[in-house]
From TrEMBL:
Annotated ranges, domain C4-type zinc ribbon: 205-239
Organism domain of life: Bacteria
Region of interest (Disordered), ranges: 62-97, 128-172
Compositionally biased spans, kind Basic and acidic residues: 62-87
Gene3D superfamilies per UniProt: 1.10.287.1490
UniProt protein name: C4-type zinc ribbon domain-containing protein
Residue ranges annotated for the CT398-like coiled coil hairpin domain, each copy included: 14-193
Length: 249
């Protein structure tokens, strides 16, 4: 293939812009905040589950507390009724009196036991409330952290997008200067060889594969017409001669 040396040189500019665009796309994919937001989303969903569990536990303890309190009330009511009967002198025989007194004593004991249960439930309820409050605090902090990370991610993504737009615009202008057949060859090679289709020959070395050309190859290149489109023998990329190619010697 033949191409004006000026157009061959333009290929290097195009390559530089394509490489820059590739780096920008990679940067956009790997913004650290993307992973951070994902991590915080996972944490938030975990906290959501833990909060739901804490809420359920509080509901259970509420029911348990109401039940224990109603048990206490029942026993107390019965003891009070018995005490009133005793005070009102509604007892006819000493045996009945003894029975009533013993029932009152046993009801008081039972009341004491049930009150212990109420206290125990209240204590556990307090713990569960503390746990819920802690989880809510953590949830709030994680949500704030997430929104800050999301904001940084969005800012960085916006900056990258601006840089991409500017590079893409320059690329369009440069590509317009390059003849269609040369551009097509470059595009094909770039797709084939991990994003690099054209490389400079610099001090006897191909910048595409970084390998030094043999003396024989260099001798061939020295006598090749300047409009001849050269290819690296090693990596097959378009090899562009520059003032730094090291062909003078
Ligand atoms: Zn090469």
């Amino acid at each position: 293939m033949k191409a004006d040396p000026v157009h061959q040189m333009r290929l290097l500019d195009l390559q530089e812009l394509d490489s820059a665009l590739g780096r920008l796309a990679h940067r956009a994919r790997t913004i650290p905040e993307i992973a951070e937001v994902q991590r915080l989303d996972a944490r938030l969903s975990e906290l959501q589950d833990q909060l739901a569990a804490a809420q359920t536990r509080l509901g259970d303890l509420d029911r348990e507390q109401r039940k224990a309190e109603s048990d206490v009330d029942q026993v107390r009511t019965r003891a009070e009724r018995d005490a009133r009967r005793l005070e009102a002198g509604q007892v006819s025989s000493p045996r009945e009196l003894e029975g009533l007194q013993s029932e009152i004593a046993s009801l008081r004991r039972r009341q004491g036991e049930l009150e212990e249960i109420v206290l125990d439930v209240m204590e556990r309820r307090e713990e569960a409330e503390t746990r819920r409050a802690d989880l809510e605090k953590e949830q709030e902090a994680a949500a704030e952290e997430r929104s800050a990370a999301e904001e940084r991610r969005s800012t960085t993504a916006g900056e990258i997008k601006d840089e991409e737009a500017a590079a893409a615009e320059r690329r369009t202008r440069v590509a317009e200067e390059i003849p269609a057949d040369l551009l097509a060859l470059y595009t094909r090679l770039r797709d084939q060889y991990s994003g690099v289709g054209a490389a400079a020959l610099r001090y006897g070395r191909c910048e595409g594969c970084k390998l030094a050309l043999s003396t024989a190859e260099l001798s061939e290149i020295r006598v090749a017409p300047s409009d001849e489109v050269l290819r690296c023998e090693d990596c097959r990329r378009i090899l562009v001669r520059t003032t730094e190619s090291g062909l003078q010697a």
